[in-house]
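Materials and Methods. Structural model of Umecyanin-like. The 148-residue sequence of Umecyanin-like from Ananas comosus was retrieved and submitted for structure prediction as follows.
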Amino acid sequence: MTMAVTSVHTIQTAFLVTIFLLIRPSLAHNHIVGGSIWSIPLAADLYGNWAHNISFEVGDTLVFRFEMGLYDVVEVSQSEFEHCTAEKPFRAFLVGPAELHLDEGGMRYFICSVGNYCFLGMKLPVSVQSLQPPPPGGSSSPIPSPVP
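The predicted structure was written out as tokens:
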């Protein structure tokens, strides 16, 4: 009987994890950076404060709305982000709107490399959370033994 119960729990757990992984991508969000357009902000910490109040997860998309030629979006290292440089960018988007799919967890850093716009606040740090499947076995209770 114990082996049968263990098999049922294993099958239930596998089923729940599969359902979670199938449904999860449909929960992805498109985030309009700053809630509006990507441009020089009135306050230098606008984009950092905006990102701090949002939960970004793997599968989400950042949407940078900007006019080509006036602005750009460059993904850089933490050091380049802190110094507002883009000497070795990971990638650059010159045409807006730019959509960037968040495909892995961790910190991501974005700046505008036009003129001194980064120093004026056009920089965005994003903490991306990895997908976490439900714990094995879930919260189900063990099946009681039949009473004789």
